[in-house]
């Protein structure tokens, strides 16, 4: 009769401590079952939840339904001869051998497998922050003196990295373009010098939707690698399944969902992950943006209900956007038919997950945006004035003076960021009607305030 321990050993293979056997009993480094390489071929549109459902389940050390946390910085070997083989690369995580947690950690590796499955890539590596994921990928792919093409509209930190830090530190330059103008994108690519086309699938904060298939086709024709930041649209969009080579995430946002963790991820081909972990030239290995195993465990427990959370974020955002538009407010949301990329979003989004959980109100002036946020938080408890997104409570920020503050006024104008652009990451606590009543009450107070000001 087969014992529970023997069954668990088959599903979650144990470690061969001596390194003498060839049985590898598991997946590649952070490899999901689906294999995607650097290629312009557009892959099948598999539902992210279905892809996650195919992963093997990691049991705990004593048969717990949750995996154990491997909170070790360093790992033992049973024979002294095994150590040099580990450092020579003969043995590694693909055969359940670990050296040091800056290299690979079993708990972080499990989260990486989930991220690879979520995005439909061959491999993934989880990092200490979203910015560390972005900077590590760009440094690895572009190199000293290389060239990047990117849109005018980007998260302020990414824009600063591309426009200030990388040119100064290593001579990497960036041409910023209007991403919706494919002719401009094509013209900006310098054959032989441009290494990466970088963009956000849904831009921060203007909510411009990238035509991922078209941009990938254009870039691959020129031999350029496509790196897509999908932080705003996990589950909603799957850029690798649409042709992107590398997908970046700030896991701190929707994937975490609790506004309590800083983390990032690089999802792409195993060849890229392996090169980034190279002991001599790998950016992840040598710069060391290492994720803590306890953080990886926390995040692994949240991914299974990411799809449910995203559906609720998106449903609330769409309903609020429709109601705000009826009030005559200037609303920006891809789910509205008057959004410039509404049709595109419908055509490339994964079915049933909606159009994203973020909407913007253009209040035209920073003063008006600030006053509305004040009433929404302090007057009616609709949401919280805070940066970031993906939290279960609604978060409010005026982008021009916060998350896009690294950009000059000219750069913000070019990117379409109005001084009064209020970014709203829509949460799902309370009932929808309860939250809408709070919004209307705050808006009424703003109108009363404006009336008193003009009267006096």
TrEMBL record:
<dbReference type="InterPro" id="IPR015424">
    <property type="entry name" value="PyrdxlP-dep_Trfase"/>
</dbReference>
<dbReference type="InterPro" id="IPR015421">
    <property type="entry name" value="PyrdxlP-dep_Trfase_major"/>
</dbReference>
<protein>
    <recommendedName>
        <fullName>Methionine gamma-lyase</fullName>
    </recommendedName>
</protein>
<dbReference type="GO" id="GO:0019346">
    <property type="term" value="P:transsulfuration"/>
</dbReference>
<feature type="region of interest" description="Disordered">
    <location>
        <begin position="1"/>
        <end position="26"/>
    </location>
</feature>
<dbReference type="GO" id="GO:0016846">
    <property type="term" value="F:carbon-sulfur lyase activity"/>
</dbReference>
<dbReference type="InterPro" id="IPR015422">
    <property type="entry name" value="PyrdxlP-dep_Trfase_small"/>
</dbReference>
<dbReference type="InterPro" id="IPR000277">
    <property type="entry name" value="Cys/Met-Metab_PyrdxlP-dep_enz"/>
</dbReference>
<dbReference type="GO" id="GO:0030170">
    <property type="term" value="F:pyridoxal phosphate binding"/>
</dbReference>
<dbReference type="GO" id="GO:0005737">
    <property type="term" value="C:cytoplasm"/>
</dbReference>
<dbReference type="Pfam" id="PF01053">
    <property type="entry name" value="Cys_Met_Meta_PP"/>
</dbReference>
<keyword id="KW-0663">Pyridoxal phosphate</keyword>
<comment type="similarity">
    <text>Belongs to the trans-sulfuration enzymes family.</text>
</comment>
<feature type="modified residue" description="N6-(pyridoxal phosphate)lysine">
    <location>
        <position position="253"/>
    </location>
</feature>
